Amino acid sequence: MAFISELTANNLRDKVTSNETELKSLYRIKSIPHYRTSVDHGLVEEYQKNGWEVDGTPLKTKTRMRKEKPHDVLFEDEVWCQFYDLGYRTLNIDRNFKLPFGKNDTETKQIDIIAINDESIIIVECKSRKTKTSSSSFKTEFESLGSMINGFSKSLEQIFGKERKIKHIFATRNIRIDNESSDGIRLTNLGSFLYNDNTFEYVKGLIKSYKGAAHYQFLALIFKGRDISKKRIEIPAIEGKMGKKKYYMFSIEPHLLLKLGFVLHRTKANNTELPTYQRLLVPSRLKGIGAFIDNEGYFPNSVVLNFDTKSKKFEFQSNQKLSSSNSRTGILKIPNAYAIAYIIDGQHRIYGYANSKHKHTNTIPAVAFTDLTPKEQLEIFMSINENQKAVSATLRITLEEDLFWDAERLDSRLKALRSSIIRVLTTSVSSPLYDIISIGEDKAKLSSRPFARVLPKSGILPIARGNKVDEDDRGSSLYNLNNLDHQDEMERSRKRIVKFISLAYDSIEKSLAKDLYDEFILSNRGTFAYLGLIGSLSQYIASNGEVKPQTPAQTRFNHIEKFIDELVFRLSNLPESESEVLLQKQGQGADTLWLRTFQSFMNNKFKDYSPEELIDWRQRQDQELQDEGRKLGTEIEKYLKKSIIRKLQVIFGDDWELEIGSIQRQCEQRAAEQREKIYKEKLTKKEIKWTEQFFITDYKSIIESYFTKTPENPPEGFKNFEAEFAIDIGDKFNSKKDKTKWLLIFNSLRNNWAHEGTKEKGLNLEEVKFLRNIHKTLYSG
Fold this sequence. Notes:
50% of the residues lie in helices and 15% in strands. The protein contains 31 helices and 21 strands. Helix 15 packs parallel to helix 19 (524-543).
């Protein structure tokens, strides 16, 4: 007996279309964020009163108008377009698809999107809000949804046939429902799929990266573990063993692996699968692989897989074992189910076959493990990819949490803690940085790299080498090094640090004007500077004995709140000239300039706050100090050249150049290169003597080679190299290396004073004092 009347079924069939021309027209209309129309010129003012605006130059008789779509319509249209991009070619034509879930006329529900292909029917219910907000409970709505889904399935099977799989999707925008929340769990238990903001962005990324192959990963995502067919796949295989792990080697047709396979992309959409580790495909590379395959190209190396056999029976039927091998041959019987094979390595090769004419005729060599934990998969992935540039810096930072959380070495655990802090800051709905930091393959406003760089530099986390840590970090960081229960402290300090950072961001976001907050705090440079500042302030109050590592975050924040108020005041009243200096500074040195500027604001108000790194930085910006250091360094270098050449001439006479022949040849090469450079840049010839091309390392080499050398008949007052150039700098002073160590230091400082106008490095007071001492020793000798 029919579930619904044939008239109702026919009416609903008329509400969808498979006509490609009509679909393209709908896609074009839905893919723009505005309604568009053309009206008589006389009606323009009336339309404007209703929210329309003029769109471009008026035509001869008409004016083109446009109006923003309401957020709910915009969201539905964007999801509809995603399904079209995923390859669905039967879709609803409007918002009036009212699907029966019972036999009574009142038992119908509007379905916002219905998408049909050869394998599946997807019905989507969309819920959106204009701005991001925590959701109210959908408990009541979801409790009635279970019986509705069952009724929907009966109606759809009658309308479109029983051969396709049916899935209900609950799509949300700006509504915070976590997969692991009570509402998220209810949906999963009902067999529905939560399609939240993270999923939308993930599918968008799939479409961009995988193009025509995106639907394979999408189906695996929403139908994970569900049978494609009851009939299992049977293929010849070899069973072997490495360590304690069994593995299977076989060849499999790409079209099968495309449906069985699933890639654990490191995105928020897959957060229930943690740890995840893969990056999205490179579209240009995927296209190239497809062309390579269609031109009869092949890949001789195996893809690496992991089969999830816990919920689906996986069987190896072996033949008789050979006496000469520990391996066994046989038949591997694989459940034909979505997402049963995790692709650890080789996703480009597999998805390169998606649109190839050879996906049914070629076979791919594979090595498959069974039931590896996600962490074991991650370790294999990193082992394969550790020397490849394909793993981005952001993805590496994100993976550290799963790689090193329970590591034996403290420095590795701190990397994991750093990664975990960044993840929680951007995935916790209560965090002011929710959804703002890029992690894994999810792109966002802020990069994770400034967070990763500044957390240890700021003192929020200690810096360790192996299991050793600087004693100064023991009392000033927020990680309690005295807690010997490492896992307990990892959890406690993560909670403490996330709370402390959240309080600091909450405070300044509420106090600072939005445009200033976006410019000076919510940017990558601002991230480094602001986190660096609150870490530095935390160290300051720790040095005063006001807090300890285990001090609650709220108490710690209370101690630094007055400093944040001062930062708000200074940024709110920042002169335009100073603002321009900060905002125009890009690239190397920008992070440091911003942080030291923020610290200077604090020092100007609170004199006791004077961190060593700020003092050092200010000295390096002191022009008088830089001028003095440059003058001293130049005169020392002139002295070295003149004195060394004179000594060589006295000791070796006319043969002095032959004695340093190898150094002379290097200097002549440098002189030639310099002459060529000047000619190319200025189209002029300039004579450059080889003796003008000595490096400080050349002087050191000469001094050490002839350290105690004296001529047979030394002139009166002659000093050998040791007598003139052995300078005590307060360190060991026994060996030749000890006595010439000052030259190494001098050489390391040279770049800081040699280029006039540089402000990236410069010289501090101690370094200028060092140059004063060397200069005085040489010229007074």
